[in-house]
Amino acid sequence: MRYLITGGAGFIGSHLAERLLDRGDRVVLLDNLSTGSVENIRHLKSSPLLEYHLDGIENRQLLAELVDDADVIVHLAAAVGVKLIVESPVRTIETNVNGTQLILEAACKKKKLVLTASTSEVYGKSTNIPFREDADLVLGPTTKGRWSYAASKALDEFLALSYWKEKKLPVIVVRLFNTVGPRQTGRYGMVLPNFVKSALDNSPITIYGTGKQTRCFCDVRDTIEGLLRLMNTERAVGEVVNVGNIEEITIEDLAGRVKERTASSSSIEYVPYDQAYEPGFEDMMRRVPCVDKLHALTGFRPETPLNEIVDRVSDHFRQKSVLDGPCKVAAGGIA
Q1: CA–CA–CA angle 62, 63, 68 (5° rounding)
Q2: What residues have CB less than 8 Å from 183, skipping those under 6 apart?
């Protein structure tokens, strides 16, 4: 099989590429490096099964050629991270909506299977826990830029499902819940890598908000397994499916867990949302997936324990620091 991965030099894209190459598939990566990094795929570049293009989806000619040669398209390219979303809402909306439109348009000509990545953010401020795929989405007002990401990804879902219903383009929409693991950067506000880097450097671990908000963290290996199984499941076509771990923890307890498992002397500090992001910033208190649909379709549930996830991320940064010097981090994180 030949896979085209947009955002292939990103955190999740690089892990998916690695897994596909290991099993003997041909992989083509397309990434403009706006949030990805060549460093993520450096260890893959020697593979004769890998082809990569440092370019954007908006290069229609290149995109058409790559889609035409592919058997499956995995669309991971997107504006990511709360920090980026708050600071660059125009970029967020244009990148997500326009990019998805171009992918679907190109894939539709040859009816290529498209798996497109959405996010748990689309559930917004819903308190109907756990989040089920057929539940109502509850977003904040358009005057709050924080919700532009959720709205843009919801529109991506509408686009993908409309292409399936109207044009019979086979699509699968996956809503990812806080995928974490080695190679994830904290640059755009991802909470776990920021906590781990601070802990390893014995600098303050910064929590945004009260820390009472809860999240569930899914090991990237489990996320990749879920994606691969869904792509091999005909019944998943035309469906929206949550992919995440159901082990719930408060951000405050996560900071403590990271500090404990890294044997860190870091203090834990709190910064109000208004200072961290923008006045009137809104967040959701709980974000927990229901993964019954994923299990019913594929027989799989993500179950890597959080302690193992924290240890894997910590080991990654320790190894990286040997090459790059001590870890430094400027701010805390949010999930």
Answers
A1: 100
A2: 11, 14, 15, 40, 316
Secondary structure of residue 286 in the 3-state scheme: coil
DSSP assigned state of 289: B
Residue 17 has pLDDT above 80, yes or no: yes
Say if CB 86 and CB 276 are below 8 A apart.
Answer: no
Is the pLDDT at 204 greater than 80? The verdict is yes
Task: Check 3, 123, 149, 277 and give the catalytic one.
Answer: 149
pLDDT of res. 84 = 65
- Cα–Cα distance measured from residue 125 to residue 210, given in angstroms and rounded to the nearest whole number: 17
Q: Structure tokens of 129?
A: 């826990």
- The greatest distance separating any two alpha carbons of the chain, rounded to the nearest whole angstrom, comes to 57
Is-catalytic flag, 188? no
CB 196 within 8 A of CB 310: yes
Structural domains present in the chain: 2-179+219-243 (3.40.50.720), 180-216+247-287+306-324 (3.90.25.10)
